[in-house]
């Protein structure tokens, strides 16, 4: 073989070796790349992590101690959103501040209508939709009560919406996302209904009955109450009990677990109670024997404590979203345990 041919062969082999070494060096780092996800609330971060697993890196904008309606759209939040592949919010005009964060982030991929934006409430039915929009009614939400994550049945659709968003920005993980979503939904069903009832009726039928608010009448008619397990059985003592809340925060939780919110301390959403309304709440609590006031931790307790002293009631404060170290299941169960202990 000539010197020129040998030199050419050496160059070819050298190039191949360089490509091979380059692949060894680059491939692992690419494999470790994660989808950057920014969420407004910790409850959404937990759902994203449950569905995305180790393929996502999640950052939450609002601190769990903050009122999710009122978060300052600071430059630090805009900076966190600048490199996001996916931005997840509840919607329903809960986080009006989120759009200001996005506007300041300079990230076209997370604008409304783009693949990197997820409105997790999409397709989730709401309650308390106002017939007439008027400031005289207080701080109302035109699309209904936005605290939908307090109902584990509605959370199913929120998780599905998040899965769809992850699929759009990371199509190579579609199959794994589907597997993790199904595992999460199975876990939700088992936590809510218990394995015995799921085996008897199936998750699909149970969720359909629950969405239609027909589950308990059906179980009683078919004499299947004894098969009920999970949270619905554990917190059965809550059914029929009356409590007072500060704000229209806990209505989805009350509807799902069968307790009644007799009144709110706020006469109108977002408006502090007048002396006349406070007296009405006190009289109602005395007449009905109500001994529990439930409120989110970010509200001032002064009025609630005064009312509680007047009627001999207990004020329970609970976080509206998971705290550090809590997943969705721990979060929801902790609130239900507080309520059960208070009403028993």
Would you mind describing this structure in some detail?
- By secondary structure, this protein is an alpha/beta fold.
- Among the domains are: 119 residues, 3-Layer(aba) Sandwich (Rossmann fold); 107 residues, Nitrogenase molybdenum iron protein domain (Rossmann fold), CATH 3.40.50.
- The protein contains 14 helices and eight strands.
- The strands form two sheets. A four-stranded parallel β-sheet has the order 2-1-3-4, covered by helices on one side.
- β3, α4 and β4 form a beta-alpha-beta unit.
- The longest helix has 29 residues.
- The N terminus is likely disordered.
What is the CATH C level class of one domain, in words?
Alpha Beta
The CATH fourth-level homologous superfamily of one domain? Nitrogenase molybdenum iron protein domain
Query: Main sheet, how many strands, which sense, barrel?
Result: 4 strands, parallel
Question: What is the H/E order?
Answer: HEHEHEHEHHHHHHEHEHEHEH
Counting helices, strands and paired strands, the structural category is alpha/beta
Shape verdict: globular
Number of strands: 8
